[in-house]
Amino acid sequence: MRRKQVILFFLIIGWLSPPAVMAIQRFPKPEFESGYVVPDAQLPLPRAELLAWLDVTVLLLTLSLATYLVLKRRSRMGVFLLSLFSLAYFGFYRQGCVCSIGAIQNVTMALFSGSYTVPLTVLFFFLIPLVFTLLFGRTFCAAVCPFGTFQDLVSFRPVRMGAWLNAFLGMIPYLYLGLAVLFAATTTEFIICRYDPFVGIFRLNASFGMFLFAGLLLVSGVFIARPYCRFLCPYGVLLNWMSQFSWKHMTITPAECIQCRLCENVCPYDAIDFPQTKKNPAGQRKQVNQLILLSLLLPLLVLGGVWTGGKMHLTLAGVNSRVRLARMIQATPVSKDQPEIPEITAFRSSGVQQQQLMTEVATIEDDFLTGSRIFGGFVGLVFGITLIRLIRTPYRTDYLPNRGTCFSCAKCMDYCPVLKDKTNN
What we know:
By secondary structure, the protein is mostly helical. It has 2 domains: 54-277 and 400-415, no CATH class; 281-391, no CATH class. It is built from 21 helices and 2 strands.
């Protein structure tokens, strides 16, 4: 019986094979009067996977070296030279991809979409800098991220910005992060990659609008140090959170601060917290009352954000291509006199029923309703915490790098007159 099955199997294969081969060749290649030549089919090269793992290895090595240069050697020159290497390798050679910033979207989609699996190398690019930051502060920003180095090269005359302006501009990355997670979770769009201002420069293929955007960032970077890193980067939000709980962190001085204020003048990122030693009982009572009021107001801000996000969900859902197509079909009357829109023609020729599309869109809009409410609540929470941090002035006696916003660039320690051979705390 088994022998008959084997013979039958090969007879079927032999019967199917000639028609299958003939089916490939029975239609002649299209001929174009323009002289178009059909390109040869190309397969993905195995080297691409090897390069991805090479990138992970280089990421680990550069992060380790950056941490050593910042925490042990306290060498600003070493950090600067390493950042130039990172710009050359991760920026212009690898053309900004894979990048830890864009990996936010891959990880989000993998968490919320069962049909998508994040590549292991992309997951490592997302997690490794976060782990290093939790252990040693933002050494990734100091010398590994090519975006930061690119902006540092044009920072010729940075000016100081007030605490309130810094705080409110610093809310923009939270909005960007929230939208990026929302659109990736609903499989709508990778907005971080689409609107990345520097990858287009690394690849020399950006649209005019993105080249203009990158140019404006670099021009503003002459006077506002690292504008993208401070006021746009969504990955910087996660690094900020990790760095605030870092096991070890860069210190300005290797020993006791002598209050020379040189670090205050040299830091271009407003990332140094000044001493707060004056004790004013009246001022302290006022601050306590303000903190109590804001703490009571915080739940209202979150609820207000949830309500506002729910009201915006249909607008945000309009970014999704399926939702946009459904709305286009509903808004376009069937008429023989008017030519059909190409997207509608393609949909109707696909064989998918309109009712099936509408059911799919209803599910997407429900997902956006939930996601938009969470996004709105997140924004309300961030706004409330920002106000609390602005009012709160903790007691400290020295000039200290802010653990969250400090990029560990080592510029301040390079100007510190305290003996360099002291060990870092």
